[in-house]
Amino acid sequence: MLAGKMEYMGDATWWDERFRSRENALMSPEAKLKLDLKYFAESNKILDLASGDGRNAIYLAKIGYEVYAVDFSTEALNRLKSFATSERLEIAIKLMDITSKDEVSKLGVKVDAVIVNHYRMAREIYPMLITWINDGGILWVNGFEDVPEDNPNIREQDILRDSDFELLKHCTLLDKEKYEVGDRKFVRYVWKK
Ligand SMILES: C[S@@+](CC[C@H](N)C(=O)[O-])C[C@H]1O[C@@H](n2cnc3c(N)ncnc32)[C@H](O)[C@@H]1O
Question: Is the CATH number 3.40.50.150 carried by domain 12-19+27-192?
Fold first, then answer.
């Protein structure tokens, strides 16, 4: 692996290009999130970190949550805004590089739950992230558990590991589930503050 800044698949320019080349339609929400709604029964306000163009943010807003979406791709957030507008939904957005402790510390939100879907957060960010969650709130993280053979963009450094959560103090792991979709292996963690 090359030394340097850890990136999830690519930098903001790479992601902008990826979102720009997508057709003008929103992908279906994450199936695992839909199955996990019981964990958000007590939540009102949910923060979607590395939201992309909003398939999960929009789904959650549609079913009544107040949603805050953060991503570092301008193109992704522009698409999210336009999908939200056409659905008559209000979603607060913030353009931010979530590898930067400095930027992340300035987010200043208080939510009942945070979701991170298909993005690997740097472990040092978790202690800060957890301060934005109200007591009793939920941290939901879902992603690759192994490098898939059919997606060359996902590398070893993008795989979720138990050690990612080592700096997460005073939280309880409610559930960890490994699962497969076709040949792809995933893992989903649910933490309670
Ligand atoms: C695989 S996509 C997942 C998007 C969304 N969570 C979903 O489930 O569809 C990864 C997302 O992470 C964002 N991302 C990657 N690195 C980031 C960073 N350093 N800061 C903020 N967002 C980042 C990308 O722009 C992209 O939208």
Answer: yes
Residue 114 beta carbon below 6 angstroms from any ligand 1 atom = no
- The answer, yes or no, to whether any atom of ligand 1 lies below 6 A from the CB of 117, is yes
Alpha helices in 40-94 (DSSP H): 55-62, 74-86
pTM of the prediction? 0.96
72 lines ligand 1 (CB under 6 A): yes
**Of 128, 133, 112, nearest in space to 167 by CA:** 128
Q: If you count DSSP H runs as helices and E runs as strands, how many of each does the chain have, helices first?
A: 6, 7
Tell me the C-alpha distance between 103 and 188, whole Å.
26
How many other β-carbons are positioned within 10 Å of the β-carbon of residue 180? Answer: 10
Q: How far is the CA of 122 from the centre of ligand 1 (A)?
A: 13
**Domain spans in the chain, listed from the N-terminal domain onward:** 12-19+27-192
Angle (CA) 24 95 53, round 5°: 20
d(CA 193, CA 191): 7
Q: At what angle do helices 12-20 and 74-86 cross, to 10 degrees?
A: 40
Nearest to 8 by CA among 160, 190, 132: 160
| pLDDT tens, position by position, 50-98 | 999 999 999 999 999 999 999 999 999 999 999 999 999 999 999 999 9
Q: Which two tokens stand for residue 20?
A: 């720009």
Contacts of 152 (CB under 8 A, 6+ apart): none
